[in-house]
Structure formats: C-alpha cells, structure tokens
Amino acid sequence: MQREPLAIAAAQPPCAAYDVAANAHAHAAAVRAAGARVVVFPELSLTGYEYDAAPVDPADPRLAPLIGACAETGTLALAGAVVAGPCIGVLAVDGGGARVAYRKMWLGGAEPEHFRAGEEPAVIEAGGWRLGLAVCKDTGVAEHAAATAALGIDAYVAGALETAEDAHVQPARARRIAAAHGVHVAVASFAGTTGGGFDRAAGGSAIWDRDGSLLAAAGTAPGEIARAVLR
Q1: How far out from the chain centre does Cα 139 lie?
Q2: d(C-alpha 56, C-alpha 152), whole Å
Q3: What pLDDT band is residue 99 in, cutting at 50, 70 and 90?
Q4: Domain-wise residue ranges, the chain
Q5: CA-closest candidate to residue 42, choices 210, 177, 175, 196
Q6: Measured between alpha carbons, how far is 28 from 145 in angstroms, rounded to an integer?
Q7: Are 49 and 43 in contact (CB under 8 A)?
Q8: How many CB atoms lie within 10 A of CB 166?
Q9: pLDDT tens digits, residue range 116-148?
C-alpha cells in the first residue's frame, strides 16, 4: 500500500532555561504554526542545555499544553529534554501523552560528567513512515547512522545544538547521512542562548531530500520553522 506524503517540520522555538512550563507553551505554538504531521525540536529544547536540569517525567502536567496542541493538530512532536538516567532524551508527544522515545548514545564535551549514554538506536513510526532518532553528536558518528538505518528507516531526524561558529557542522553531517543511506534527514537546531557556554546557538534548522539536496531551511532566529513534504 502506498504511503501518503509526510509533512515534517524542524522547529527552533525560544527556550527559557529550566522552565519546562514556558517551553511547553512555546513548543505548542510551534506545533500549531508548523501544520505538519511530525515536528522535530532541538536538543534539550524543553529544559534548555543545562547540565543540572531536573529530568522531565513524561507524565509531568507541565507538558499538557504541548499534548493539547498535538491532539488538536494530529501532530507527533519529538521534543528534547533531560530524562531519567539522567540522560539527554527525546520525548515523543502526541494527543495521547508523552513517552521517552530515545536516549542520546554519543555524548560530547562535558556531557559524560553529567549524563548517562543511551544504549540502543530507536525508530518511531508516523503515518507509515519510519523515523530514526538522533541527538546532536550522534549525527557525526557513522556507526550511529548505520545502526539506525539498519533498523529500516525512511528518514533520520535529530535535535541538535551547535554554536553559530559551527553552523556548518549539521548540514555537512546531514548530507553525508543522506548520501550513505538514501534517507531523508531533518535536523532541528537550537537557536538563541542556552547553558553550557552556548551564548549564540546556530539555528538553521533544515530538512534534506534523500539525495542530500536541501528542501527547507530556517534562519538563525528563535521561533523560525523549516517545513517540507517528504514523498
């Protein structure tokens, strides 16, 4: 049976350090604005890139605005948060609630001092499409993309955080992954300011076709969204 095309967005909402409630509202606004079946968010988008942020329980009532927006729009949101472990995680959020869908496997910088690494790649389905999940440094490790692709994926989606000076890193990685595995790639890249020394994050969230060609890209400002339809 032929699948319907998949409308996907990579969003970079404004983020308030530690303020899950405010960030959930910002994520909800992005979901409503995106008009997409799947909306990908940056690394630690719900908590900020704060090493000491408390883990977010998927049952946390502060997530209600985001769950509500997903219920209204039929969206699957893939949001970044510190999760139990503690780990750098991806929360899969839809109208029925939230769950931890993935834990970052390849930690970078000072992260190993504060977080545990995830143990296995993960895939989530949306509209008949299989989406492989990744977070930031994962995208630069060929082993991660290969292990994820081996699970049978149509697209590789990631939340990321880079400095403005390293804005070239994620596009280069995305093109390599698309070329190596013949999959679409979507990267939601943090914009604005957050912890860990990221005074000026890169933004530039984007979506690439299977051949590595660019389908859509956001600018550098918080609140921008890249949206494309995968076929």
Answers
A1: 11
A2: 29
A3: very high
A4: 6-230
A5: 196
A6: 29
A7: yes
A8: 11
A9: 999 999 999 999 999 999 999 999 999 999 999
The token pair at 1 is 């049976």
Helix (H) or strand (E) holding 80: strand 76-83
Tokens of 82: 């510190």
CATH pick for 6-230 out of 3.30.450.150, 3.20.20.150, 3.40.50.800, 3.60.110.10: 3.60.110.10
Helix ranges (H only) for 114-220 are: 142-149, 169-181
| pLDDT given at position 2 | 67
pLDDT of residue 41 exceeding 80, the answer is yes
Span 154-159, average pLDDT = 98
Q: How far apart are CA 216 and CA 102, in angstroms?
A: 25
Mean per-residue pLDDT for 47-56? 98
Show the tokens assigned to 49: 């890139």
In Å, what is the CA distance from 78 to each residue of 41, 43, 93, 113, 140? 6, 10, 6, 25, 20
Structure tokens at 34: 């995106």
Question: What span, in angstroms and rounded, lies between the C-alpha atoms of 96 and 173?
Answer: 33
pTM, to two decimals: 0.98
